[in-house]
Specification:
This protein is of the alpha/beta class. About 25% of the residues lie in helices and about 35% in strands. It has six helices and 16 strands. It has helices spanning about 100-110, 125-135, 145-160, 175-185, 210-220, 240-250, and strands at about 10-15, 20-25, 25-30, 50-55, 60-65, 75, 80-85, 115-120, 140-145, 165-170, 190, 195-200, 205, 230-235, 260-270, 275-285. It is globular and about 55 Å long.
Length: about 290
């Protein structure tokens, strides 16, 4: 599935491990490990290029300013707005390919005919949080990084989401879910975008291949009696859509039935029309 309805974002071209992107009126050149083909144009010489992220041989990297480069700016997707701010490790604070999932979740929430309580785990800067809250859901936004949770709050305010729609939690996601189980709190939908590797605020270690199955199994215990959906996103190389589908089938769908879909998420490039792969998603939707 490809995010094809953006107006404030596009992938102009790709090649030699980089992607040339337009974020509103700012053009950036960022590394992408999936791009193993040759470019069909000189991306470094592109007119209007604001900055290029260059990796260091010793790890990390830095932004090389090439032109007019604001510290931060805003992009819009339909009725959603997000702050863009280039930061360390090539990130900008938003994954535009996730628009396909924002649209899907919006449709499900609006079609539910009731208020939906959403738990968004590893929620980063809140792309999914904003989409779900704007669609009318109440969202519990959980991430271990204080700075990312603060950015999520900014995005929620930019999109004029109503007061009280989002609850912000800075915590290790697994420990938070365990406490929610003990408290007996339930959610109608769960979103998770777990990292390949990570550490919680107290040094908790996370490796996706070792943790994902048991984590989804744990999260299924906070689903309400009539849940709406469970969505898993993964950017881990080698973790195929079928793996996500199998995990959902063996956990969430085991005693609930419903429909499971899993797919690769991508973005179409303007220059060549090739699809840039951007990770995988799996979703369980209740069949009731």
């Amino acid at each position: 599935m490809k995010a094809a309805e953006w107006k404030d974002y596009s992938v102009i071209a790709t090649g030699d491990g980089y992607k040339l992107e337009r974020w509103a009126d700012v053009v950036l050149l960022r590394p992408d490990p999936q791009v193993i083909w040759k470019p069909s144009m000189d991306m470094n010489g592109y007119k209007g290029l604001a900055a290029k992220y260059v990796r260091s041989e010793t790890g990390g990297g830095k932004w090389l300013i090439k032109g007019k480069m604001p510290q931060e700016w805003t992009v819009g997707y339909k009725d959603l707005k997000f702050k863009i701010k280039p930061m360390g490790f090539k990130h900008t604070g938003l994954f535009p390919e996730q628009a396909v999932n924002w649209d899907l979740m919006t449709e499900l929430i609006k079609g539910a005919g009731r208020e939906i309580n959403v738990l968004n785990l590893f929620a980063y800067t809140g792309g999914a949080t904003v989409a779900c809250a704007k669609a009318g859901a109440k969202v519990c936004h959980v991430d271990a990084a204080k700075g990312m949770v603060e950015r999520a709050g900014e995005n929620v305010r930019l999109s004029n989401v109503g007061d009280g729609k989002v609850r912000y939690i800075i915590d290790d996601c697994k420990k938070f879910v365990e406490r929610e189980i003990r408290r007996g709190r339930k959610y109608d939908a769960i979103i998770m975008d777990p990292p390949s590797y990570g550490r919680g605020p107290n040094g908790e270690m996370w490796k996706l291949e070792n943790e994902l199955y048991s984590f989804v199994e744990l999260c299924s215990k906070v689903l309400s009696d009539n849940p709406l959906f469970v969505l898993i996103n993964s950017y881990t190389t080698g973790l195929q859509p079928q793996v996500l589908k199998n995990i959902l089938q063996l956990t969430v769908a085991k005693d609930r039935g419903g429909k499971i879909d899993a797919y690769e998420v991508g973005l179409k490039t303007e220059q060549d029309g090739v699809i840039l792969p951007c990770g995988n998603s799996g979703i369980w939707i209740n069949g009731k």
